Amino acid sequence: MPETKANTAAAPRHDVKVITALRRFAISISVLNIAGYTFLGFEQPWLWPFIAVFTAYVVEIGLEAVSARGEKRAPRFAGGGLKGMVEFLFPAHITGLAVNMLTYVNDRVWVLVFGVIVAVGTKWVLRAPLKGRMRHYMNPSNFGITVILLLFPWASIAPPYHFTEYLYGPADWVLPAIILVLGTLLNAKLTGRMWLIGAWLVGFVLQAVIRGLAMGTSIPAALGMMTGVAFILFTNYMVTDPGTSPSKRSSQIAFGAGVAAMYGVLTGLGIAYGIFFATALVCLIRGGYLWGLHVMAKQRAAVEGQAQQAPAGAGVQVAAVPAPGSSAVPDAAPVGAATAVRTGEPCQDGSCFHGKCASLRVAAREKKAAVSG
């Protein structure tokens, strides 16, 4: 098939707001890593963030090239020059730094590389139809971290204290305040995820209180997690990922509250690192929900198409099958009555249970009765 302008066009790019949000997020997480390795107390080797980012770049570019070739289009990183390539790599940059910053795998760098590959690669594997396009629904960084924790039980989350290990006095408050203010501005002006954040925070408080009343958990201790830098980072930069969280207000509330409720259940069951598992499970549920909506929409479209193709007002009469030993011609068959043989299509044969088809059959019978009367 000859190539045309239509099938070689680049895939749709993010809108301006999303690009701006990704740029600021990439800059913020880069600055945080620089500060972390210079004076905050990050414990991973200083070479690892470079390894993580390089791995993320290679996987992102490679899979996009394969996808573009399969879909007969230009890669998203092509045609925009250096600026286009940089903007294309913003998500990979964020994912690579986040996976390295939030996990601790001792000295086994290959586990880190594996986690980054899984995190970036899942965007091409776990997808669901949304607004006419296939979109990934698993939060990449969170999913990569979750897979590491599941497959390598000896691995752990980077200790929260390493964000403020060498800070004392007012600095203990200044850093969380800066992250909180910048994250709030980012989500309020660009990502539009403030309803999600609000639902997540309210839900987190409620699950802590419920666990305290039902299970005897210390409520102040459960709520104390909200004061840490790690919790602020998760709230403003991970759970609000615009690519894998809903944009509609009611859906945002359901998503944020769902993550909080799932965290409460997992923590109540004694499962460690529940905040990452909860996010992954809610993203997975959302992906299944999107696929369910897609399948139902296709079924409705098929039913409507069959109803439109059926002759208006045509009642289908099926020829009776004579019993063994009886006459081949039914005695009660009216003269001139048309007979039909089953086609195997329930909607055409009048044997389906679709509400719309039933309405059409009733209307056809009433019209026929009115004409004959």
Entry summary:
The chain is mainly alpha-helical and 373 residues long.
Describe this structure in words.
The chain has 13 helices and 4 strands. It has 373 residues and is mainly alpha-helical. The N terminus is likely disordered.
Write the layout of secondary structure elements.
Blueprint: H1 16-40, H2 48-70, H3 81-102, E1 103-104, H4 109-125, E2 127-130, E3 133-136, H5 140-151, E4 156-157, H6 171-191, H7 194-215, H8 219-224, H9 229-238, H10 249-268, H11 274-309, H12 346-349, H13 355-372
Antiparallel strand pairs: 1-4, 2-3
Protein traits:
4 strands, two-stranded antiparallel ribbon, two-stranded antiparallel sheet, mainly alpha, 3% strand, 373 residues
Low-confidence stretches: 1-8, 315-323, 326-340
Structural class: mainly alpha
What spatial form do the alpha-carbon principal axes imply?
Answer: globular
**What string gives the helices and strands in order?**
HHHEHEEHEHHHHHHHH
Main beta sheet strand tally, sense and closure: 2 strands, antiparallel
Give the percentage of residues in beta strands: under 5%
